[in-house]
């Protein structure tokens, strides 16, 4: 146990020769949705909104007030999965719903409104209706009852537990106010989601990763270092407690649905990622470092340059000795070495410490 603890507490010794920040920025670009997919999703969203508005326009027990995009698409933390799929959350809002109407009934009516939007029958989830655009994307439709004169927060329809307070707009505001570098925050969330997408088995939700990233991100010029530090702090959190509260209404535990086995599997995967991330940051070879990152983030993470930094350092030491000994020659290419075909350098004095 003592040896294990000492190993975990070994200080990080970053080797700049294996700096993978540019590879991470390239990886972020590969996680972005294509412009054609975005156009299809926008068209689908507008079609769904039109279908719902038409369906409810003559229903006296409901007052449809509009839709609002929420979740990762809204916050720009959405990713393309390895299968090139993604999802959008489109909240449907009613200003009034007759008191005799159950939440399950409201959701069933929304289901009927969008039932024939695609050739695939929508799914009835416990807290939304899922419209499936096969092999492309899906749109989740949570249903809300919100009248600002009566409610402090929107009420989310659930199939089995009635109306529950839930405020996706508050979460969006919270997320956007919590970072001095919002672009890096978004990238870190996307890297965590890409890791989850690349691994088998159930991981914590994208919502959990978002909250952890906001809670733990310390700004860094390098995304690889920033990600490593976030991973370590997530591990510290769950070693102490798995309780991760939603920072806004309804303030519930976003990890409560994970089973003990799923938690154990995630902890093992997290420990392996942290160990490999540390080795990558301390590596003297960018290709070697990139392979360590790829093991967790997948093949879309590019290979680094295969350079032997030990050999480069040794070569620099050798030529510096030649320079100081007045045995160095400048070649036409500008390279310094001991090839006497070049122009001999003037004597140098080392004034360094």
From TrEMBL:
Keywords per UniProt: Antiviral defense, ATP-binding, GTP-binding, Magnesium, Metal-binding, Nucleotide metabolism, Nucleotide-binding, Nucleotidyltransferase, Transferase
TM segment ranges: none
Identification of the protein by name: Cyclic GMP-AMP synthase
Domain Cyclic GMP-AMP synthase DncV-like nucleotidyltransferase: from-to ranges: 68-144
Catalytic activity, as annotated: GTP + ATP = 3',3'-cGAMP + 2 diphosphate
NCBIfam families per UniProt: cGAS (NF041078)
């Amino acid at each position: 146990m003592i040896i294990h603890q000492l190993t975990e507490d070994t200080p990080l010794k970053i080797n700049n020769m294996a700096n993978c920040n540019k590879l991470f920025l390239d990886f972020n670009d590969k996680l972005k949705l294509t412009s054609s997919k975005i156009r299809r999703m926008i068209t689908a969203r507008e079609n769904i909104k039109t279908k719902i508005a038409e369906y409810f326009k003559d229903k006296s027990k409901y007052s449809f007030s509009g839709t609002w995009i929420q979740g990762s698409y809204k916050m720009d933390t959405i990713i393309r999965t390895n299968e090139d799929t993604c999802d959008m959350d489109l909240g449907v809002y009613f200003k009034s719903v007759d008191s005799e109407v159950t939440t399950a009934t409201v959701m069933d009516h929304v289901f009927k409104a969008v039932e024939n939007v695609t050739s695939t029958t929508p799914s009835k989830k416990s807290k939304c209706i899922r419209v499936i655009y096969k092999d492309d994307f899906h749109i989740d439709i949570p249903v809300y009852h919100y009248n600002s004169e009566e409610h402090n927060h929107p009420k989310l329809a659930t199939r089995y537990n009635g109306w529950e307070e839930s405020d996706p707009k508050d979460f969006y505001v919270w997320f956007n106010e919590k970072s001095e570098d919002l672009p890096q925050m978004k990238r870190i969330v996307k890297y965590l989601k890409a890791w989850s997408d690349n691994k088998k088995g159930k991981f914590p939700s994208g919502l959990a990763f978002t909250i952890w990233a906001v809670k733990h991100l310390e700004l860094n010029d390098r995304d690889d270092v920033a990600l490593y530090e976030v991973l370590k702090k997530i591990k510290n959190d769950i070693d102490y407690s798995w309780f991760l509260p939603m920072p806004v209404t309804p303030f519930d535990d976003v990890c409560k649905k994970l089973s003990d086995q799923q938690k154990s599997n995630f902890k093992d995967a997290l420990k392996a990622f942290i160990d490999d991330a540390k080795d990558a940051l301390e590596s003297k070879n960018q290709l070697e470092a990139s392979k360590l990152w790829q093991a967790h983030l997948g093949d879309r993470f590019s290979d680094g340059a295969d350079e032997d930094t030990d050999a480069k350092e040794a070569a620099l030491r050798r030529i510096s000795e030649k320079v100081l000994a007045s045995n160095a020659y400048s070649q036409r290419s500008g390279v310094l070495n001991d090839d006497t075909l070049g122009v001999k350098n003037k004597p140098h004095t080392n004034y360094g410490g």
